[in-house]
Amino acid sequence: MSNYFSFQWHITDECDQRCKHCYIFSADNKKPLESMDYNQIEDTFYNCIDFCDVYNRKPYFYLTGGDPILHKDFWKVLELFHKNNIEFTIMGNPFHLNDQVCRELKWYGCDKYQLSIDGLKKTHDWFRKEGSYDATFEAIKSIKKAGIKSIVMTTVSKTNMMEVTGIIDEVVKAEVDIFAFARYVPSGGDLDSSMTATEYRELLERCDKKFKEYERQGVKTYFNKKDHLWTLYEYEIGEFKIPKDIEKDMIYSGCNCGNCHITILPNGDIYACRRVSDSKVGSIFTDRLADVWITKMEEYREYDKFNKCSKCKLLAFCRGCPAVAKGTNGSFYSADPQCWVNENSKLLSGV
Fold first, then answer.
1. Residue 218 — left, alpha, or beta (φ > 0 → left; ψ -120 to 50 → alpha)?
2. Kind of pairing, strands 261-264 and 269-271?
3. For residue 12, what are the contacts with CB-CB under 8 A and spacing of at least 6?
4. Strand, coil or helix: 7
5. What is the reported pTM?
6. SS in 3 state form for 85-154?
7. Residues 192, 189: Cα–Cα separation, whole Å
8. Which candidate in 31, 50, 158, 167 could, as Cys together with 195 as Cys, close a disulfide (CB 3.0–4.6 Å)?
């Protein structure tokens, strides 16, 4: 397990956008907006710190929403982080950022700021709202000027998969510090979720070629191969090798669900993964998180239940995306729909 434990903490549902793939609004645009009050925020924070004390982990917070900056006590939350000397990443929108705001974020300890680009200009603005594309690249300038690392994340589906390499060109041009993409989890939105396994592998191949071209040129953007199917791809091309000294029944990498990550929602719900729609395991307002981790989270650590991955030699390193599997097939442990390993593959000859 990682020395770090990450908390994806949604302090509010308030948001300037209604994105086509948003887990909060895609299935129900009339959902009431919820926010934690500051007393709940303080209690939640120390509940998380207690968890890390119990399990000897270093806390790392991903502060998000909605857009966390819209919470009325946003700056008090940052004071709480600053007082406890904890760095954090913000995942939000570009619309309330400028040079002064970003300087203040940096002072409070903001390590990284994540924004989204979900296509080239026309496609991205369709995903989010008109003007979002230009606002995002303007915000990146302020983020970088303040000394905060800039992250661009893309949500990939069949709707925008042909634009991903173009997005890579744009983020490199903007000197973004980190770029990554993750797949769309079917959740009732307007995106096409029918991307095939073959199409996805071809996308990884195109992106890998693009990444390597830029790396040879010495660009500063770090290409974070976030999707765990990158491990399968790199295994096939010989860039990832299974270590000879691995221990049986140990998990070394792959999906963080059940290992070093948890999500907290504005209404206090604790989720094993925000991308898994029914993964509630407790309430941060009434439960001790350290107890929830051992009483409610075990069902997400039963690796022999994976229909396909349990037979694969990459079980300890990949497992695809169980959230995509759940959203597509209805089961956390079902086969990842974009995994291209077929039943005759030598990889499925047993772990």
1. left
2. antiparallel
3. 33, 34, 35, 36, 65, 66, 67, 68, 70, 71, 266
4. strand
5. 0.94
6. CCCEEEECCCCCCCHHHHHHHHHCCEEEEEEECCCCHHHHHHHCCCCHHHHHHHHHHHHHHCCCEEEEEE
7. 9
8. 158
C-alpha to C-alpha distance for 200 and 295, rounded to whole angstroms: 36
Q: Are 262 and 8 in contact (CB under 8 A)?
A: yes
How far is residue 341's CA from residue 192's CA, in Å, rounded to a whole number? 22
What lies within 8 Å, CB to CB, of 224 at 6+ separation is: 178, 179, 180
In one letter, which amino acid is 342?
N
Which residues are bridge partners to 271 per DSSP? Answer: 263, 280
Contact present, 150 and 178 (Cβ < 8 Å): yes
CA pair distance 87, 111, nearest whole angstrom: 6
Q: Would you say how long the chain is, in residues?
A: 351
Q: Which residues pair with 155 in a beta bridge?
A: 182
- Cα dihedral sign, 299-305-308-310: positive
Residues 6+ apart with CB under 8 A from 106: 146, 147, 148
| Mean pLDDT, 10 residues at a time, the chain of 351 residues | 86 87 66 92 98 96 96 98 96 97 98 97 94 97 98 96 98 98 84 92 98 97 97 96 88 90 96 92 98 94 93 94 94 96 81 50
